[in-house]
Amino acid sequence: MIEDLRRVLPLRLQITTLFLFFMWLFFQAYQPWQAIDEDLLYNTGAFDNVTDLSGWVREHGRVQWSDDTGYVSLTSTSRLRFQLPVTTGDLLLSSGKIKTTQLKRARKPWDAARIMVYFEDEKGRIQWSHPHDVGYMSGDRDWQLYTVAIDVPSFAHKGWLELAHYGKSGIASFDEISVKPAVWKQTYSHWQMFFGMFWASIMMWLVLNTHFWTLPWGKPLMAVGLLIIIGVTLPPATMFQVASSGAEFSRKVLDTAEEVFPNQASPPSVATSIAAKPSTETIKSASQSVPVQIEKLAKTEKSFQAPDTDSRVKVSPADIQKLGHTFLFACLGYIAFIGFARKVSLKVLSYSLVLFALSTEILQLVVDGRLFGFADALLDVLGIFAGAVLAWVILHMRQRSSLI
To answer: What are the structural domains, with CATH classification, of the chain?
Structure first.
């Protein structure tokens, strides 16, 4: 198959493939951030001494530490938080190591051992549509380092770093936790310009050498391709604004539904339920009725749930972007196959579309450092496939009707 493609593919597509491969390798290995200040945790995230736990707040569950380990371990339904000083517009370089021992995750993949950095607005509401995950892990795995740069949004009134075990069982261990103010490396912008200019040049070279715009379906194909590129290069702030508008709209819809159907009250939010529950330390020191307190503690442990960061944001930036891209790639696949399936090789056409889908995902690395996701690329390819199938069905129906 590969040899066949090498014989069939034009030289320009082979050159484009090699360029995108080296481009992906470079940005996967390149670290665009650079810490510029001291650790906001005052180096307590190393957990070398028991005094390092003084700045942390154990809000739920059990936290284990000893001189022998030098790291903290959390049992199921446990979380540990540290309040961060926040300044709007700052970039926070958050990192930490996670180790899991026979940890069974819950309903969602992130309901496991998890590190998060999130922010509250003036009313104490957490905006989950803003990027917040540093890393999460489950199963039985050794230490793994996670590093993510998260910007402080304009609505931030209070910031939190959270270490949590949202799984069903097992042990979650954390070590070498740090949050440092950072900046983008100056050389990163140079690499962005270098690779971005080359990417644009190669795309223009492909367009000018194919002359497909002279064909009936050429101009619509070019227009959809430009829309996809614009969607990829939208800044995260714009995507966040769109997501916030969608979340606000969904909240209004839910409020209206509650007014129309007052008997079907919505369940309390996780943040409210957690705030209403007493912590384990408060329960232990409340009175001398130990059996009653133990019973309360058991009930609290059972009813504890991870924050549903997926459902609380009705429309997230990633969802908007990927659903829009999948739809546009479906349109791209439909136009390409219905307009060019009988004019060029199907192998070359299919390879060109898949290569374009991969290039748009790699372009995210160049634009703002967003990670390349194979799942996102797979959604784009599925969109192309759906459009191609629809085009094939329409062409087949036209052919049958012409024979009748």
So the answer is: 2-31+187-238+314-403 (no CATH), 34-183 (2.60.120.260)
